[in-house]
């Protein structure tokens, strides 16, 4: 073979190798763009239902979880707390949860829950979006002798009972919001999904 003759096999090998290398390079360049079109796991989780294990919540205890960037309170109420709920109707702005759509229809009862033992509410004051505090103590000095436990917003003085129902005469206009939720088992709640209809 002289200098002017072309080695076709060698040329084919070089063209194939360059094509493969170009394809690999294009893949590396395109990957970040393709991945940016899909939502991240964090973004998916922000709107997705959240499964919560409630097996270790003792009666009278409050657990806080996050759903859609908001604090969700899960309160396991004891029998005394449930008894007190029925004694407060005259002191509440909307005791039967009729004025606003602050809860799904399946939680439109005086317990505001699917299971009377568990309250599930978004822990954000309905006045200006402050964070109320859980005050289960009865008749503390700062809240008065009539206080039977509940949620108190120290920012502007709004008060809610242990069903998240707002008291009369406070700045908050409505009850705490009950998010969609369902019990998967006796010890697991799925927040962000309504109960399945049989």
Write a structural description.
The protein has 198 residues and is of the alpha+beta class. It has 2 domains: 1-38; 45-191, Rieske [2Fe-2S] iron-sulphur domain (Rieske Iron-sulfur Protein). 22% of the residues lie in helices and 20% in strands. The strands form 3 sheets. The protein has a 3-stranded antiparallel β-sheet with strand order 1-9-8, with no helix packed on it. The longest helix is centred in the first third of the chain and has 29 residues, at 8-36. The termini are far apart.
CATH class of the largest domain: Mainly Beta
> If you average the pLDDT, what whole number results?
86
Q: Which superfamily, in CATH terms, is the homologous superfamily of the largest domain?
A: Rieske [2Fe-2S] iron-sulphur domain
Number of individual domains: 2
Portion of residues in beta strands equals: 15-25%
Q: How many helices in DSSP terms?
A: 3
Write down the oligomeric state: single chain
The beta-strand count equals: 9
CATH fold label of the largest domain: Rieske Iron-sulfur Protein
Order of helices and strands: HHEEEHEEEEEE
Gross geometry:
elongated
Tell me the strand order in the biggest sheet. 1-9-8
The poorly predicted ranges are none
Given helix and strand content, the structural type is: alpha+beta
Q: How would you characterize the largest beta sheet?
A: 3 strands, antiparallel
Q: Tell me what the CATH architecture of the largest domain is.
A: 3-layer Sandwich
Whole-angstrom Rg: 29 Å
Calculate the terminal CA-CA distance, rounded to whole Å. Answer: 83 Å
Share in helix = 10-25%
């Amino acid at each position: 073979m002289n200098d002017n003759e072309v080695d076709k096999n060698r040329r084919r090998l070089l063209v194939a190798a360059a094509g493969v290398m170009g394809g690999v390079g294009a893949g590396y360049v395109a990957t970040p763009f393709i991945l940016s079109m899909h939502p991240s796991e964090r973004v998916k989780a922000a709107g997705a239902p959240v499964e919560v294990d409630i097996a270790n919540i003792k009666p009278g205890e409050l657990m806080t979880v996050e759903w859609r960037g908001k604090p969700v309170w899960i309160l396991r109420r004891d029998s005394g707390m449930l008894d007190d709920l029925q004694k407060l109707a005259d002191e509440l702005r909307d005791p039967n949860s009729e004025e606003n759509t602050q809860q799904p229809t399946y939680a439109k009862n005086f317990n505001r829950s699917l299971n009377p033992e568990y309250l599930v509410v978004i822990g954000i004051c309905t006045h200006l979006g402050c964070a109320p505090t859980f005050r289960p103590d009865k008749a503390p000095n700062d809240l008065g002798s009539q206080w039977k436990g509940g949620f108190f917003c120290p920012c502007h003085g709004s008060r809610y009972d242990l069903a998240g129902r707002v008291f009369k005469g406070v700045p908050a206009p409505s009850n705490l919001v009950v998010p969609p939720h369902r019990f998967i088992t006796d010890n697991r709640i799925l927040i962000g999904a309504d109960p399945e209809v049989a």
